[in-house]
Amino acid sequence: MSDLTRLSAAALAEQLRTREVTSVEATQAHLDRMAAVEPAVHAYLHVAADSALATAADVDARRAAGEDLHALAGVPIAVKDVVVTRGVPTTVGSKILEGWVPPYDATLVEKIKAAGLPILGKTNMDEFAMGSSTEHSAYGNTHNPWDLERIPGGSGGGSAAAVAAYEAPLAIGTDTGGSIRQPAAVTGTVGVKPTYGSVSRYGLVALASSLDQAGPCTRTVLDAALLHELIGGHDPRDATSLPDPATGYVDAARAGATGDLTGVRVGVVRELQGEGYQPGVLARFEESLELLRGAGAEIVEVSCPHFTYALAAYYLILPAEASSNLAKFDGMRFGLRVEPSEGPVTAERVMAATRGQGFGDEVKRRIILGTYALSAGYYDAYYGSAQKVRTLIQRDFAAAFEAADVLVSPTAPTTAFRLGEKLDDPLAMYLNDVATIPANLAGVPGMSLPSGLSDDGLPAGFQILAPAREDARLYRVGAALEALLETSWDGPLLGRAPELDGGAAR
């Protein structure tokens, strides 16, 4: 039997369908892999081995009985710890929710369970999804499987690292300003931020409600399409949920895999390259553009002049919404409760003690910034002005999509940096998301896929953006580029990550 952890989700699903392997075998193979490499990678905060194996056994029995199952039934999956899971701890990477076990499932978890995917566990993340390196988790760093001394991206570094290290074929991430796409770029995986509202946010612990979006983390574009179709669609419990069905993504990925992009207009965003971008990252980006051109795509340059203000606007809108959303963590209703060591026990003092000890420095920094931006006398000058910039960015996208079917850029300016390198410089850390943030401000979908290895031997990412509700375009162009790159590399990036053996990278 081949190593089941090395198979794509689509390939594993086919072997499960034909009963060449069982879901119990596939799930156990991934649990064994986790046991071998987790001491080095630390992608998971909680491993749900018993429930995963129970789900796998149930799927195997139903399949043996001839029941018609979902295409991904029996394929194991990991879930970012910002997504609530009934009976399984959900900490959001924070001490303030340590040990909290939700009494309900997020909508996307309900869909995963209904389809019969064994949930391997919950993945590590920056606390409350605030960060670009997974160094702000209250439970320790996650390490990049390509180089254990480097970051796996953030905030969803755990999901990306789990997929890159073959600890899961599929994972769920969330993307508020790049938290699916940037980790995908630095770990050599595929990450998709769907159109805002196309995947339910019911059951996601909110960071910034107008920006948050759940999506797939995988090793191939087709796998992302399969998972996207599973978790997407309308949810009446989410007031921002779109009525559109989640269909056409798999067909688009299969069509794109033929490598024919005749008539597709690809817009290169002038403002998302140049100064600050690593030469090797730009080199892989330019090579990818040439492959697209060779496949029949028309390459045009577009300008989105207000993208240069996106970072500043984002770091006013996000903290403001976070300040409001995180007010519920007050030591009174659920989660951590810390009483003052001396003096009267009042609501105000309990709240101050709980939040002071329960939140990490980055969360405190953003709450303070957001509260200030929303305060009397500053609301219009800061938060209101940032929302006006957001409108200008949305107009930039609208104009650009008149000239191009998709927009492209490097996903992140650099490859993975070393752990601790930017931890004491918040602005340097924030700049990692300069290319991904505009999509969240506008609500448009985006994908990152590997564009090869930079000069330092680490993965670089290629970002594709499409108009809202046109996610299928991501999958057509992404699958085409993936196929073209596999040919140009003489083999896919999938499988080329360094082995992890005994806790050390070889």
TrEMBL record:
Annotated signal sequence range: none
Keyword Magnesium: no
Alphabetically ordered keywords of this record: ATP-binding, Ligase, Nucleotide-binding, Protein biosynthesis, Transferase
Catalysed transformations (reactions): L-glutamyl-tRNA(Gln) + L-glutamine + ATP + H2O = L-glutaminyl-tRNA(Gln) + L-glutamate + ADP + phosphate + H(+)
Pfam families: Amidase (PF01425)
Active site location: K80 (charge relay system), S155 (charge relay system), S179 (acyl-ester intermediate)
Keyword Transferase found: yes
EC number: 6.3.5.7
Biological processes per GO annotation: translation
PROSITE patterns the record matches: AMIDASES
SUPFAM superfamilies named in the record: Amidase signature (AS) enzymes
Self-association and partners: Heterotrimer of A, B and C subunits.
Entry protein name: Glutamyl-tRNA(Gln) amidotransferase subunit A
Native organism: Cellulomonas oligotrophica
